[in-house]
Design brief:
The complex is a heterodimer. Chain A is an alpha/beta fold. Chain A has one domain. In chain A, the strands form 2 sheets. Chain A has a 3-stranded parallel beta sheet with strand order 1-3-5. The longest helix of chain A is centred in the middle third of the chain and has 15 residues. Chain A starts with a strand and ends with a helix. Chain B is an alpha+beta fold. Chain B folds into 2 domains: 60 residues, Arc Repressor Mutant, subunit A (Orthogonal Bundle); 190 residues, Heat Shock Protein 90 (2-Layer Sandwich). Helices cover 41% and strands 19% of the residues of chain B. Chain B is built from 10 helices and 9 strands. In chain B, a hairpin with a 2-residue loop joins strand 7 and strand 8. The chains are: A alpha/beta, B alpha+beta. The interface between A and B is medium-sized, with 26 and 27 residues.
Chain lengths: 89, 259
Amino acid sequence: MRIRLKQYGEILTSRPAGREAALAMKARLRPAAGEPIELDFDGVLSVGPSWLDEVLGALRAEYGRERVICLPTKNLSVIESLRVIDSGR
Amino acid sequence: MKTETRARIVKIIQERDCARPIELVKMLGISPQAIHRHLRILVASGILEPRGRGPMRRYFLAGAPQLSAVLSWYASIASPAETPGEVVCETRDVFTARLGRLRSFARMGLKEDDLPLAISVAGEVGNNSFDHNLGNWRDVPGCWFETQATGGRLWICVADRGQGVFRSLTRADPTIPDEQAALVAAFERTLSGRAPENRGNGLKFVRNIVVASEGRGLACRSGVGLVEYGRLGGVCREELSRFPAEPAGTVTLILWSLK
């Protein structure tokens, strides 16, 4: 199941906005058992670690760490955000 | 004598941020022709840079940002007389919307790959102002967010009239001894003034991005604390050394080289 993050805005920053986005995602997601949750960053201009930490934290808590996958992207703000989030966990 | 006049012109512009030729004529009491001759020499020497056209042309120190407005706003002991709405973001939503303004620097030489990073770095710094001061501002709510391009560099300034980093972080770690240690902790430790919430990685991200490339720098002042990161951090630090230790808000200056 793929989540197109550009639906949540071109600039994804701040914890309150990330928390709100995660709640909206969880309300809509109906994945089949074991189905991966794929985050698609295509069309997103910039992501901050605070926003992404809230979204990943909520989705991983709900569906398990292994099922939540960030699709590959060349966007350096995503790559660096993931680096700092994963180094802190 | 000519060198002395040029030194006086530079000093006036340093103190005022900028000056029009007609203003220099009045202040120095010499002819417009002489002023223009000195200005041409100072521009050719790379000391000054002109901006604007015709009678509105002003001369600035080359490569230096204009920080007198934010300095006056930040340094005011009482509530500032003026809070310009075009740079002060009263709410987080306004701040987030204005982050998009950084797009315009892509036309001025901000590399395509750097734009998302510059936005997220500015975003983390500005959001920190709201995270730590919401409901607890000294007087004016929100943060000052200003961007400028000069001297082949993008300058991003974020300032607030909040409680300061020390007061915020000592709630999570009472052993932090002073404002300098609090700033170092903010940028180098995973520690949040919003404990027990799982936060505190935003400024580590900012530091990582700034030190990752030679063409970037940052300095942050909060109270008497002042830290710098990145190759160009010293340039930012020099600018922020003009900002007073009292009252204790927080001001961050980020510098990004343009192509």
